[in-house]
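Duplicate of earlier report; DNA-binding transcriptional repressor AcrR input re-posted below.
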Amino acid sequence: MCKINGNGTTLENIHRAAKAEFLEKGYKDASLRNIVKSVGMTTGAFYGYYKSKEELFEAIVGAHYEYILKRFIKAQQEFAELPAAQQPEVMSDISGLCMYDMLHYAYEHLEECKLILCCSEGTKFSGLIDEMVEIEVEGTHAYQEVLRKLGRPSPHIDPSLEHILITGMFHTFFELIIHEMPLKDAENYVREMRAFYTAGWMKIMGQ
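Output:
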C-alpha cells in the first residue's frame, strides 16, 4: 500500500480500517488481525503505533466521548450557577442549546459517535448514557431544592421512575444519531422531544 506523508497517512489508514471493523463487529468481536491485514502491515509494525486494540479504539473515540460528556456537564454547571429565581425561566433554553450542540457535533463525527453508542461494549466508553443519567439525576435533585427555596415545593419522585424516565430521554435522543436521521428531521425531532419531556417533567414536579 502506498504510504504518502509517512506516519500520518499510515495512521489514517489504520483508523479507517479500524472504524470499518469496529462498526461491523463491535469492539469485542473486532479482529485486530483483520485491521492490520487490511492496512497491509505486520502486527509488529502496528504495535509501533498502538499497544492494543483497546488503545486503538480509544484513539478513535476518546476525544469525541470527552466532548459530548463535557458539553453536557458544562450545561449543567451553567444552569446551576444561575440565580435561583432565573432557573425556572431558562431551564428549557439551556438544555435545548446543549442538545442541539451535541446533535450537530455527533453528525459532524457520525462514525465515531456511532462507535461509542453502538459498538463500545467491553470498553470504558460503553457507559456514556449511564454517566449522563447520573449527572442529570443530580441536576434534577438540585433543581428541586431550588424550587423549594423559591416556595415552589416539588413532590418526591420515585427514584426508580426518575431513573427510567431520564434513561429513556437519552436513549430517545441518541436514537436519532444511531439511525442517521436526516439532520433537519433530527432537529425537528429534538424540538418535539424536548417539548414532550419538558411538559412531562413540569407535571411530575408539580409546576
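The domain at 10-48 is CATH 1.10.10.60 (Arc Repressor Mutant, subunit A).

Merging into the original ticket.
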